[in-house]
């Protein structure tokens, strides 16, 4: 009996873990962006489309995810912050807005969203900051070039920042973590980057008051290195998970406060990607020439502006049709003796004839 009960409990635990798996957690969201409670799964390859829709941009394919509901068309978040944590399928974030299962955790980037932002706001130059730990560098474009010019961009620079005044080492409860281990330093370096980004945004609050939205995409792989080096059952991994959860919560609160509650902060926790995550070194404004996906170099049936053009043509035709109907009605009911200028300018004899 005990063996049967144990087997059933083990099967239920394994089934529950399979259901939970990787997660998409919304830490902070404006009041006009609401999320429905429930286990609504979303595919990892749809994350860029989700970010684009939250910022009011059009996407090529319909998202088909009923968990999110946008408010007014004229109210969109001033900033979208996407944090990708590798090495853990979920984090204990009690102050989150909503959390949903993540299916098909494939590598993704927000380059398409960044390109759309720069195309729609060429004069305002929005802030686009992307952290790619695989290359140990930051992509900084536009205003980010001047605002984040003092931000460490390589792992060596970040480790040097840890030894300076005001580093996170003086305030974090390291517990079992060591300052001399490579895996621990990588994790602490990413925590330091989050701290410095929030500090720079707080110092330059004018970025949150311009008319262009901002985009932040940060991939954190330090927890994955700790799990690989110590194991998921080690005290180092447990302490690092607790530290990262509290740091992400504070980072979300700081960013939301800087943008006056108009920032959307999401956390994607992925145990492991189904394919290796590699990023090519290129400019974020780079565009592809031609249509390599078509055999005969044919254009798509519609583009991102299809909905806008359709609405313009539709309502213009309706307005012209109503105008024609109104003019025809007035001409039909016109009194020739009083309204027509032809009868007013001719003599009485012609009128009688």
Task: Outline the structure in words.
The protein is of the alpha/beta class and 353 residues long. 40% of the residues lie in helices and 15% in strands. The protein contains 11 helices and 10 strands. The strands form 2 sheets. An 8-stranded mixed β-sheet has the order 3-6-1-10-5-9-7-8, with helices on both faces. A two-stranded antiparallel ribbon has the order 2-4. A hairpin with a 4-residue loop joins strand 7 and strand 8. The termini are far apart. The N terminus is likely disordered.
- What is the chain-wise order of helices and strands? HEEEHEEEHEEHHHEHHEHHH
Radius of gyration: 29 Å
Taking the alpha carbons of the first and last residues, their distance comes to: 114 Å
Number of strands: 10
SS strand fraction:
15-25%
Which class do the helix and strand fractions yield? alpha/beta
Mean pLDDT: 78
Order the strands across the largest sheet as they lie in space: 3-6-1-10-5-9-7-8
Shape: elongated
The major pleated sheet works out as:
8 strands, mixed
Helix percentage: 25-40%
Q: Provide the low-confidence segments as ranges.
A: 1-19, 276-295
Tally of alpha and pi helices: 11
